[in-house]
Amino acid sequence: MKNVDIVIVGGGPAGLAAAVSAKRHGADSILILERDASLGGILNQCIHSGFGLHRFKEELTGPEYAQRYISLVEELEIPYLLGTTVIDITHDRKVTAVNSEDGVIEIQAGAVIMAAGCRERPAGAINIYGDRCTGIYTAGTAQKFVNIDGYMLGKKIIILGSGDIGLIMARRMTLEGAEVKAVIEIMPFSSGLNRNIVQCLNDFGIPLYLSHTVTSIKGDKRLESVTVAEVDQSLKPIKGSEREVECDTLLLSVGLLPENEMSKRADVVLSGVTGGAVVNERFETSTPGIFACGNVLHVHDLVDYVSEESERAAKYAVDFVRGRTYAESDIQITPGSGVRYTVPFKINPHNIEDNLVIRFRVSTRYSDKRIRVLINGEPVMSRLEPALVPAEMQTAVISREKLNAIPDIRDIVVEVGD
Question: Disulfide engineering: 223 pairs with which of 219, 297, 340, 346, CB 3.0-4.6 Å?
Answer without folding.
Answer: 219
